Amino acid sequence: MSQVSSTSATTQAGARYQQSFDALAKKQQGAFIPFVMIGDPHAEQSFEIIKTLIDNGADALELGIPFSDPSADGLTIQFAAKRALDANINTDTCIEILKKVRAYNADIPIGLLLYANLVFARGVEKFYSDMSAAGVDSVLIADVPIRESEQFRNAALANNVAPIFIAPPNASAATLQKVSSLGQGYTYVLSRAGVTGTEVVANMPGKELIDTLTQYNAPAPVLGFGISTPEHVKEALANGAKGAISGSAVVKIIESNLNDEKQMLVDLATFISSMKAAT
Questions:
Q1: Could you give the C-alpha distances from 51 to 44, 148, 197, 269, in angstroms and in order?
Q2: CB 3.0-4.6 Å disulfide test: which of 53, 60, 78, 127 passes with 33?
């Protein structure tokens, strides 16, 4: 069932995020954003998985491109990347899947969370140009600090792609100010230090962190890392976040159903629906 809408193409980096957050605010809802690795467990099923996320309430998508040496991912996401790499998924394959996703839904914000070597390998300018052409709205490069981000920011904005930055729980006011001024689309707020995964549950940041980001006029703060239950989503929103990102809990469902791809989609639909209901 296609969900292509008649909304015209966006012309400003991160515009789909603003449209989505505005629409959710009118409904007094927050955003639920699932993460999966593109190409996990193989290209055909990956597209079916992403369609299932959209059909069951995802307000935006956070997607990974498989990489052999991740530094911010826990074991669950690392295994997802390995499955995709074993299925011969590369950046070109990911772009083809992204184009299919954008053709399926014209409005949903699509963000990438990945590592700098993937960008360098393609060429910084070409990477952002190709991702923009595929319908990508934002890119977060997990291993690039703000002080090294200028060439990526420039290439992103030149191609109407929003640069996303991370707000760590122990960040200084100066760091939060830079995150707020340089980011667009949304701000990825870490619930805790460390790598992704549900083994360590989310810690809800104090309202002070969200308030500081708001004071600096940061793009919408969205909480990630360790979000795995509807209660986590509710708590994130109660602390002032505009949304919550869940990755490892979603990917774990894929991992648990590798031998039954139909049941995988059923279980994903149930989980996504329950998380969205908490917003």
A1: 11, 35, 23, 10
A2: 60
